[in-house]
User: Which sequence fits this backbone?
């Protein structure tokens, strides 16, 4: 499997690795994927007002999955919830030059962002928007 | 060419006349299985094999099923092994062939070939074993082990690629095959086609060296493997050995590093040439069929890496490999949400995963 330079760079220097307190009211947590499929992503956001002020991730998966989630945390930091919600997997595919067999990694990253935002919104008592 | 035949024969306890040259193990497997099936189909149409066989055996078996044969695929135990009793239970009146590999290519587990051979002899069923991984590495004696057909491959024993051989028993019983390659009647009519002489010379020489060096090769590999496994197991928790702890090829170590995915692991140890039991790298995204047949969960199957210790591997290389592996696993577990959950005491099997 030939990885793009960007994937290798994120794999070697993943951004925003870590965990937040998932019980905290200003934190949203998304866990997507399944161990038997070889990919699990956990993505967390910390929100102030309507803005994502911090993001953390942990990923069990191939290099592309790690890079996709690392990139996702980079992109959503500083964005409003709606702008983060608008990120789609094709942007991740393009940025990381993912081959067709690795597109599911980008889908997972998009799902993780949406799951984290929905988790945060449901904590605020708002109805989660459709993923 | 005849000297090559003698060297191969000597290594496996056969006579030179019983050696058929082929292009490799895949062709030898096809010739053995299809050749026997077609020759003896009037006696019966049932074949017994294993779920853990190489694809060349499994796909040939599937082809034979399409041609009207019935195949029983035995599940190995959790170490990847089959017992003679298990094979005995699968035999029927119309069984004509048993195909059980000598040693597994992914996990190195060695089957009780002598017992299975004795059983087949007693029940008058032909016994074919894929010896690709075993010949030259462990003692093979087709007489004492009661093997009727056995294949081997040049490049697995430090010989050239593109050449292999099939042993076909000539006496007690005399095994007959329907040729799969028609033509000038080379190789006792079983495999027509002009032979690749340079490759055959190389194969013969490789067999000679293997026979001469077998004990030192084995001790060398075992010492390196023991050193490697001890270092890794001492440094890391949640490491699983895939395969049999004792009945295993000395050169093979297949380990699952729980909570770390195999492909990311390979990326992390890119200085090492290893392979992942997870075929993710081959784009099929399916974990190894061998590990699945052994009952290894998909999650651990996705985390498996196979390490090999060869004649030319040095202690320094093994130490270097162990350091790389340990560092990569530690780093990737820092990244792993699963490892974090396990440390928190979460039972992963109880979680409702959102499978894609």
Assistant:
């Amino acid at each position: 499997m030939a990885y793009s330079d960007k994937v290798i760079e994120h794999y070697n220097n993943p951004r925003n690795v870590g965990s937040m307190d998932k019980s905290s009211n200003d934190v949203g947590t998304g866990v997507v994927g399944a161990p038997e499929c070889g990919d699990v992503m956990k993505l967390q956001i910390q929100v102030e007002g309507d803005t994502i002020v911090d993001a953390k991730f942990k990923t069990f998966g191939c290099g592309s999955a790690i890079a996709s989630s690392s990139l996702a945390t980079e992109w959503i930091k500083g964005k409003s919830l709606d702008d983060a919600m608008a990120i789609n997997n094709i942007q991740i595919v393009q940025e990381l030059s993912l081959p067709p067999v690795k597109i599911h990694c980008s889908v997972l990253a998009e799902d993780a962002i949406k799951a984290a935002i929905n988790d945060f919104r449901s904590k605020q008592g708002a109805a989660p928007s459709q993923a | 060419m005849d000297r090559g035949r003698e060297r191969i024969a000597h290594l496996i306890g056969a006579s030179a006349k019983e050696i058929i040259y082929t292009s490799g193990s895949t062709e030898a497997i096809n010739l053995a299985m299809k050749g026997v099936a077609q020759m003896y189909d009037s006696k019966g149409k049932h074949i017994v094999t294993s779920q853990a066989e190489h694809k060349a055996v499994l796909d040939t078996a599937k082809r034979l099923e399409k041609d009207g044969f019935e195949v029983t695929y035995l599940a190995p135990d959790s170490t990847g092994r089959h017992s003679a009793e298990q094979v005995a239970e699968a035999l029927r009146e119309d069984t004509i062939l048993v195909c059980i590999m000598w040693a597994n290519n992914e996990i190195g587990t060695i089957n009780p070939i002598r017992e299975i051979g004795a059983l087949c002899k007693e029940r008058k069923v032909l016994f074919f074993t894929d010896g690709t991984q075993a010949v030259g590495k462990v003692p093979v004696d087709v007489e004492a082990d009661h093997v009727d057909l056995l294949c081997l491959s040049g490049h697995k024993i430090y010989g050239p690629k593109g050449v292999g051989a099939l042993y076909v028993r000539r006496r007690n019983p005399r095994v007959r095959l329907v040729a799969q390659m028609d033509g000038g009647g080379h190789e006792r009519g079983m495999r027509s086609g002009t032979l690749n002489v340079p490759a055959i010379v190389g194969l013969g020489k490789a067999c000679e060296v293997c026979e001469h060096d077998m004990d030192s090769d084995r001790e060398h590999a075992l010492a390196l493997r023991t050193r490697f496994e001890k270092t890794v197991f001492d440094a890391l928790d949640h490491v699983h050995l895939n395969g049999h702890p004792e009945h295993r090829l000395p050169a093979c170590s297949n380990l699952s590093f729980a909570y770390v995915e195999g492909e990311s692991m390979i990326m992390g140890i890119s200085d090492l040439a290893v392979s992942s039991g997870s075929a993710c790298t081959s784009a099929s995204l399916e974990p190894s069929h061998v590990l699945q047949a052994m009952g290894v969960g998909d999650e651990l199957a996705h985390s498996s890496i196979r390490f090999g210790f060869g004649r030319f591997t040095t202690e320094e290389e093994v130490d270097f490999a162990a350091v790389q592996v340990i560092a990569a696993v530690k780093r990737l577990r820092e990244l792993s949400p699963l490892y974090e959950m396990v440390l928190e005491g979460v039972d992963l099997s109880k979680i409702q995963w959102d499978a894609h």
Q: What stands out?
A: Chain B touches chain A through 29 residues (CB under 8 Å). The two ends of chain B are 55 Å apart (CA to CA). Chain B has two domains: 2-209, 214-350.
